[in-house]
């Protein structure tokens, strides 16, 4: 038995005897809704839980990346197949997928469990939602088995890829220390004029990083300011929240023609408002020049304006500002 399958099996054995509540609720479905489902859909709390039990056990055993965390047995089996961890040989610690019709079709899978022991063509398993309500040991044959998923064959990358030619970053305490600098063959044989001081190069790189970081931060803040404050609508597969819109109903006795007539009656308002604004502006102007009524210069320009326009000179006492 591979060590990954052993950890998963140990976690599963500790839950033997668990039964779902009368409403169909299980702690495994509740956990799945809270920690795995992105929408935290309460549907999973009472949903069929054979695969969610294995997701929970994988989390407790620390092997979630190798065993997978699914609520759908079909998707789980296909995941093993995509990762070249799928086969038809039973072994302890492997996940076993069943189709009760015996079709052998991965798209017809109905149930999943974990193999505890193999005796020829007889499987001893631990299964959640067995007999429709319980976590228990079962003994089954191979006729209804579609295949096996092997957690130990899932390859998990523990560290990010680092190019082989990349050198480790220089620490702050070693900036300018030539004794810790590794030079290539070309650098060792170049002239002193062609070599920049190590400290200047490092400081220049640090300044460039700071500048780039400042620009990126400013761009991020600008993008965040334009981002909508309301969360986008999430579309679920079932789409139950989509309802047809209800047409607007006019009050009794009101017709579209009445609405058009009402709109037409309000079109004169802008013109009236504009006339009132002009009158107020005239009053303000004449009020501001009232103290210049006896000013000779004002009288002169008043006469010039009258001659140019062929109108009578303005009498300030009757001007709009003095009414």
Short description:
The protein has 323 residues and is of the alpha+beta class. It has 10 helices and 6 strands. A hairpin with a 3-residue loop joins strand 4 (122-130) and strand 5.
Which short descriptors sum up this protein?
alpha+beta, elongated, 11% strand
Describe the protein in words:
Helix 2 crosses helix 3 (50-61). 20% of the residues are buried. By secondary structure, the chain is α+β, with helices and mostly antiparallel strands. A six-stranded antiparallel sheet has the order 1-6-2-3-4-5. The chain starts with a helix and ends in a 14-residue tail after the last helix. The longest helix is centred in the middle third of the chain and has 29 residues, at 198-226. The chain has helices spanning 3-13, 27-35, 50-61, 64-67, 73-82, 185-188, 198-226, 256-265, 269-288, 296-309; strands at 86-87, 95-98, 111-119, 122-130, 134-140, 145-149.
Helical stretch count? 10
SSE ordering: HHHHHEEEEEEHHHHH
| Nearest-integer average pLDDT | 75
Q: Span from first to last CA? A: 106 Å
Fraction of residues in helices?
25-40%
Number of strands: 6
Please state the CA-atom Rg, rounded to the nearest Å.
41 Å
Helix- and strand-based class? alpha+beta
- Strand order in the sheet with the most strands: 1-6-2-3-4-5
Strand content: 5-15%
What's the shape?
elongated
The main pleated sheet reads as: 6 strands, antiparallel
Name the poorly predicted regions: 159-172, 174-197, 230-246
């Amino acid at each position: 038995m591979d060590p990954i399958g052993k950890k998963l099996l140990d976690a599963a054995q500790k839950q033997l005897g668990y039964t779902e509540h009368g409403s169909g609720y299980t702690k495994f479905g509740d956990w799945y809704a809270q920690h795995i489902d992105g929408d935290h859909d309460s549907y999973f709390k009472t949903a069929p839980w054979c695969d969610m039990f294995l997701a929970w056990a994988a989390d407790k055993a620390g092997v979630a990346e190798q065993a997978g965390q699914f609520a759908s047995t079909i998707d789980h089996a296909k995941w093993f197949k995509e990762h070249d961890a799928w086969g038809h040989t039973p072994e302890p610690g492997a996940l076993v997928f069943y189709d009760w019709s015996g079709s052998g079709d991965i798209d017809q899978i109905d149930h999943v469990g974990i193999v505890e022991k193999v005796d020829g063509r007889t499987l001893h398993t631990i299964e959640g939602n067995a007999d429709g309500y319980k976590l228990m040991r079962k003994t089954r044959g191979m006729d209804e088995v579609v295949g096996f998923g092997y957690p130990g064959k899932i390859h998990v990358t523990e560290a990010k890829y680092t190019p082989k030619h990349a050198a480790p970053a220089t620490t702050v305490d070693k900036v300018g220390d030539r004794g810790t600098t590794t030079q290539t063959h070309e650098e060792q044989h170049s002239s002193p004029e062609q070599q920049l001081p190590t400290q200047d190069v490092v400081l220049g790189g640090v300044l460039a990083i700071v500048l780039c970081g400042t620009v990126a931060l400013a761009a991020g803040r600008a993008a965040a300011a334009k981002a909508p404050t309301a969360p986008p609508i999430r579309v679920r597969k079932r789409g139950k929240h989509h309802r047809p819109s209800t047409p607007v109903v006019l009050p009794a006795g009101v017709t579209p023609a009445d609405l058009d007539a009402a709109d037409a009656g309000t079109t004169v308002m802008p013109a009236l408002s504009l006339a009132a604004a002009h009158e107020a502006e005239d009053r303000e102007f004449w009020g501001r020049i009232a103290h210049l009524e006896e000013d000779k210069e004002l009288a002169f320009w008043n006469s010039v304006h009258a001659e140019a326009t062929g109108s009578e000179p303005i009498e300030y006492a009757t001007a709009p500002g003095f009414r």
